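Hi support team,

I've been running sequence recovery on a batch of backbones for a student project. Most finish fine, but this one hangs at about 90% for roughly twenty minutes before it completes. I'm not sure whether the input is malformed or the queue is just slow. I've pasted the C-alpha cells below so you can try to reproduce it. Let me know if you need the job ID as well.

Thanks,
M.K.
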C-alpha cells in the first residue's frame, strides 16, 4: 500500500492543474488593471517593465488586489431563519433552558457558522 501511495507516476496534482488557468487569468488581469489605472502617471511607466517578471510573492499580492468586474456587485445576503427548538411543556423552565442552550451550542451555532462562510465565499464564486 505504501508503494502505491509513494508512486508519483500514477497521480497528478489536480488542484494545481485545475486552478492554473484561473490563477493566470487573475494575475494578468490584475496587472492590466494596475497598468490601466496608472497609465497617465510619468513616474509609474518605468515600473511597468518590472511587472512582466514578477516573483511569486508579488504575483500573489497582485492577485489579492484583483477585482473582477464581470462579477455582479450586488450583495446577495439574505435573512436565514434557523427554527428554534420546540418547547417541551412536560419539562420545567430550567430544563427547557438547559436544552435550549445545548441546542444552540450543538445545532444553531454550527449552522450559522456555515452560513457565514458561504456568504463570505460568495464573492469569489462564478
Amino acid at each position: 500500500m505504501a508503494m502505491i501511495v509513494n508512486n508519483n507516476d500514477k497521480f497528478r496534482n489536480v488542484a494545481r492543474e485545475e486552478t492554473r488557468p484561473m490563477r493566470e487569468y487573475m494575475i494578468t488581469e490584475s496587472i492590466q488593471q494596475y497598468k490601466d489605472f496608472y497609465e497617465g502617471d510619468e513616474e509609474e511607466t518605468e515600473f511597468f517593465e518590472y511587472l512582466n517578471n514578477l516573483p511569486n510573492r508579488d504575483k500573489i499580492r497582485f492577485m489579492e488586489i484583483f477585482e473582477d468586474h464581470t462579477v455582479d456587485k450586488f450583495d446577495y445576503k439574505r435573512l436565514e431563519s434557523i427554527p428554534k427548538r420546540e418547547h417541551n411543556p412536560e419539562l420545567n423552565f430550567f430544563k427547557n433552558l438547559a436544552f435550549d442552550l445545548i441546542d444552540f451550542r450543538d445545532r444553531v451555532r454550527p449552522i450559522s457558522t456555515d452560513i457565514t462562510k458561504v456568504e463570505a465565499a460568495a464573492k469569489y464564486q462564478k
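--
Follow-up from support: It reproduced on our side and the slowdown came from queue contention, not your input. Residues 1-70 form one domain. No action needed from you.
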